[in-house]
Amino acid sequence: MDKYNIVYTNAAANDIAEKFQYITSVLHDRTTAERWYARLKDAIWHDLSFMPEKYPLYNEEPWHSKGVRLFITRQDVVVYSTDKTAQTVYILSLIHISESTR
Questions:
Q1: How far apart are CA 50 and CA 26, in angstroms?
Q2: Phi, psi of 69, rounded to the nearest 5 degrees
């Protein structure tokens, strides 16, 4: 089984930076922000570097037809696509799930 490379788009990197900044600035907890970031990166690597197509396609068009998938980890949805030929996962976006939307 081949390992996929993980590539973060600028949009995804910005989403991650914004959440990290929110935790440190608004919640005043840098330690929690660092733990969240480490867990997120570990979950993405662990769950998406091998068999990334095991997670569901996004159920809305045009994303479904474009092969965009969703991976949920804790309170975050990782939006990504894969390129089998290049053995690469492209992290497209990160969306926070609030308790009120669950």
A1: 35
A2: -120, 165
Query: What is residue 2's predicted lDDT score, i.e. its pLDDT?
Result: 80
pLDDT one-digit tens code per residue, 53-66: 999 999 999 999 99
- Report whether pLDDT(100) > 60: no
What tokens does 32 get?
A: 């929690």
Sheet holding 88-96, edge to edge: 5-8, 88-96, 76-83, 69-73
Q: Please, are residues 52 and 69 in contact by the beta-carbon 8 Å criterion?
A: yes
- Tell me how crowded residue 89 is: count the other CB atoms within 10 A of its CB: 25
Contact predicate 73/40, CB 8 Å: yes
* Predicted pLDDT at 98: 79
> Contact at 8 Å (CB) between 9 and 88?
no
Convert the pLDDT of each residue in 22-40 to its tens digit. Answer: 999 998 999 999 999 999 9
Residues 7, 49 contacting (CB under 8 angstroms): no
